Amino acid sequence: MSFENIITETHGRVGLITLNRPKQLNALNDQLVDELSSALDGFESDERIGCIVITGSDKAFAAGADIGAMSGLGFMDAYKADYITRNWERIKTCRKPVIAAVAGFALGGGCELAMMCDMIFAADSAKFGQPEIKLGTMPGAGGTQRLPRAISKAKAMDMCLSGRLIDADEAERAGLVARIYPASELLSETLKAAQSIAQFSLPVAMMIKESINRSFESSLNEGILFERRSFHSIFALDDNKEGMNAFLNKRPPVFKNQ
Ligand code: CAA
Q1: Is the pTM of this model over 0.85?
Q2: What are the beta bridge partners of residue 15?
Q3: 64: closest CA among 128, 154, 121?
Q4: Taking the CB of residue 219, how many other CB atoms lie within 10 A of it?
Q5: Which of 73, 54, 70 minimizes the C-alpha distance to 62?
Q6: What residues does ligand 1 touch, defined as CB less than 6 Å away?
Q7: Closest atom of ligand 1 to CA, residue 65
Q8: For this structure, is 89 an active site residue?
Q9: Is 132 a catalytic residue?
Q10: What is the Cα–Cα distance from 49 to 19, expressed in whole angstroms?
């Protein structure tokens, strides 16, 4: 499939999606997000792919929702088109692990897009922010919900109410970012990490992701019950037997994703 606003590549078992609207700093319009959704559909249904990386350019992961496209919207336009929900939520429903590799600006919808991924690896150049308030609007792709869960209410309030940007170090200290790399190494290191995740058993990785995500939607007891039942079900996998036998026989495991 050919795309205009993104570039897709495969690196071994990793699917790489590069946001590519350089003139607009990867501002997210419907077309870009539709293409991103299609690329995720493709990688998700491809059994050769075990992990997905989403990245942008050195200057911007994404500078937010496209302000030009939004400026003319009325309530009924947004409501009827189900703006945001219709296509952005595809990232949320992806069952394979997804890493955001963020260099430069991740602002507004760009920060929210990164937060929809399972984890964020940042370049030391990264800047995160929810500056919507400066435009007379508010975060609309999950910023007011995912930020407090990721970095605390105080920091989320600070970012959303002041519109101030935080750098990679502050984002890492606050828990938004899992790892920081020098900008020149961000992509290669992220691909390396993705490759290492992708060589594990895919159903196990999917169940771990599902179980961690469940913790945000349930009480501790319900979450632990969900985890316990998933853990029990993993005993049915060939990969479970393979991983343990390989350890006991002091050899590397060969997972078959079943
Ligand atoms: N939408 C559309 N175009 C954008 C854009 C956006 N979010 N962000 C940047 N651009 C465009 C600029 O208009 C500019 O285009 P022209 O060259 O045609 O003028 C081009 O990208 C380069 O931008 P700048 O010249 O502004 O670059 P800079 O280096 O001086 O500043 C920046 C970079 C700080 C990221 C600045 O562009 C900026 O503040 N962008 C807007 C960020 C923002 O407010 N994002 C939130 C959007 S609302 C939202 O996302 C809602 C939601 O929750 C879903």
Answers
A1: yes
A2: 10, 52
A3: 128
A4: 9
A5: 54
A6: 24-25, 27, 63-68, 105, 107-109, 112, 131-132, 135, 139-141, 143
A7: 50
A8: no
A9: yes
A10: 19
Element (H, E) at 10: strand 6-11
C-alpha span between 151 and 170 (Å, rounded): 10
Q: Residue 142 corresponds to which amino acid? A: G
- Nearest-CA residue for atom 35 of ligand 1: 63
Give the whole-angstrom CA distance, residue 49 versus residue 94: 13
- Would you state the structure tokens that stand for residue 187, as one six-digit string? 């992509």
What lies within 8 Å, CB to CB, of 151 at 6+ separation is: 159, 171, 174, 175, 176
**C-alpha 222, offset from chain centre:** 25
pLDDT tens for the chain, 258 residues long, are 689 999 999 999 999 999 999 999 999 999 999 999 999 999 999 999 999 999 999 999 999 999 999 999 999 999 999 999 999 999 999 999 999 999 999 999 999 999 999 999 999 999 999 999 999 999 999 999 999 999 999 999 999 999 999 999 999 999 999 999 999 999 999 999 999 999 999 999 999 999 999 999 999 999 999 999 999 999 999 999 999 999 999 999 999 999
Q: How far apart are CA 156 and CA 161, in angstroms?
A: 8
| All residues at 6 or more sequence positions from 84 whose CB lies less than 8 Å from its CB, including other chains | 140, 141
Helices (H), ranges, 17-102:
30-45, 67-71, 75-81, 85-93
| Dihedral-angle region of residue 130 (phi above 0 means left; psi in -120 to 50 means alpha; beta otherwise) | beta
Query: In this structure, what DSSP letter does residue 65 have?
Result: B
Q: What is the DSSP letter of 164?
A: -
